[in-house]
Structure formats: structure tokens, C-alpha cells
Amino acid sequence: MTKSHCSVVVLISGNGTNLQALIDDSTHSNYKITAVISNKPEAFGLSRAQRSGIPALTINHKDYSSRELFDHALMETIDTFNPDIIVLAGFMRILSAEFVKHYCGKILNIHPSLLPAYTGTNTHQRVLDAGEKYHGVSVHFVTEELDGGPVISQEKIKIEADDNADSLANKIHQKEHIIYPKTVSWFAAGRLHMNANRAYLDNDLLPETGIEISPL
Ligand code: GRF
User: Fold this and answer.
1) pTM for this predicted structure
2) Looking at the structure, do residues 75 and 21 belong to the same domain, yes or no?
3) Of the residues 1, 90, 103, 106, which has the fewest C-beta atoms closer than 10 A?
């Protein structure tokens, strides 16, 4: 893959601040966002895409009677763009096994926790309730296990005494906007791959928690 030739399809469900970070980075990086697809017609991220001249489409999951039928329609649309990578940026749908297999090793997700800890939702409140000292964000390859695919990269923050779920969400978002473009650009440069459920950077096996981009 050469500069500007890695084609990225971004899937969203909401505000799309991570999408915006990727759009902004892509103007001077080695990947190009060729389409943005939302499962929710009201997702603000669609306007962000349109504003930047990127095709913005909705495939409403409510129009389909099963997850499999929805995922099938999603795959058909994605494939018309022939992407090198699918980037999930706040896409709030669990993907079927068929979808994950179809794009095996080509789907990235960002999750607001230091995986493998705190999979699932409501992570900010859960780390506070557990009295954790640190919180963070992870980018990982998507496999059939929810939030369970091999971790590529992480950013960590220290939890302060006056933090609450909202302040943590804000701090984590700032980190997300750094870590996601960086990790996508590694993929675009051909430096990342997944094999037997493990992540590799430059053919080196990554640790279970991936690479910490800016160590505390
Ligand atoms: C982010 O917090 C991300 O970690 C999670 O969904 C959120 C999306 O935020 N997967 P935005 O829509 O990119 O602002």
C-alpha cells in the first residue's frame, strides 16, 4: 500500500469525534476514507463526512428482521467500496460471525478501557466503582469475541481523585483522537497484521495489552 492508497470504510452510530480525527489526519497521512456508513440515520458523524465530501450512507438496522440480514446488507454496501480496512468508530452493533470472517484481519475497533480489562459498556463508571488507579483506551483487531480481539495499541491515563464518569470520558476521547489515526496509519503502511488471534507490528508479536503509545 502506498501513500493515500489504503482505502478505509468507517462505521459509526453517533457523534463521530473519532471519525473527525481520522478525517483530519487522513489529509496528510497514508490512508483515505472512501465511505462512512451509519446504522442510525440521525448520527452526526454522517454530517461530518458530507462536510468533507466523503460518501455518507445509512443502513438502518431497524429495516432488517435479523442481525444476519442487516450484516449482509452492510457487507454488500461495504464491498462496493473495496476497502483495505474497516474501522469501527463508535459503531454500536455486535457484528455477526459471518461479517467478522468476511473481513478477517481487516477490522479495527476502539474501546474505552485498558483491554483485556473492562470489555462491554459503561467502562468509565465501572473503573471508578472498582477504585482503579488507571484507565485508558485500546485499539484492537475485531474477532468474533466481543471486545476480545488482539490489542494493538493503548493510551493510559491516571485517575485523579476528582474524576467522574464524564471527566474520564472527556480525557479518554482526547487520547482516542491520537491513538486511532496513528494505529490506522500503521495498518495503511502494511506494518500490522493478525495471525492466529495475535497482533503483530513489523512482524513482532505484540504483548496482550498492545503497545503503549505515550507511556505515562
Ligand atoms: C468512543 O468512546 C469509542 O471508544 C467507543 O465509542 C465512542 C465513540 O465516540 N467505541 P465518537 O462517536 O467517535 O465521538
Assistant:
1) 0.96
2) yes
3) 1
Is 111 a residue of the active site? yes
Q: What is the CATH number of the domain that holds 49?
A: 3.40.50.170
Ligand 1 contact, 83 CB (< 6 A): no
With CA atoms as reference, report the closest residue to 110 among 52, 54, 149: 149
Q: Which of 18, 36, 40, 146 to mutate to test the pocket of ligand 1 (most atoms within 8 A of CB)?
A: 18
E strand or H helix that includes residue 173: helix 165-188
- Ligand 1 centre distance from Cα of residue 123 (Å): 12
Give the containing element (helix H, strand E) for 85. Answer: strand 85-88
Locate the ligand 1 atom nearest the alpha carbon of residue 88 and give its number: 10
pLDDT digits (tens, 9 = 90+) for 31-51: 999 999 999 999 999 999 999
- Of 103, 125, 154, the last residue of a domain is 103
Which residue do the cell numbers 470504510 mark? Answer: 9
125 C-beta closer than 6 A to ligand 1 = no
Q: Are 154 and 213 members of one domain?
A: yes
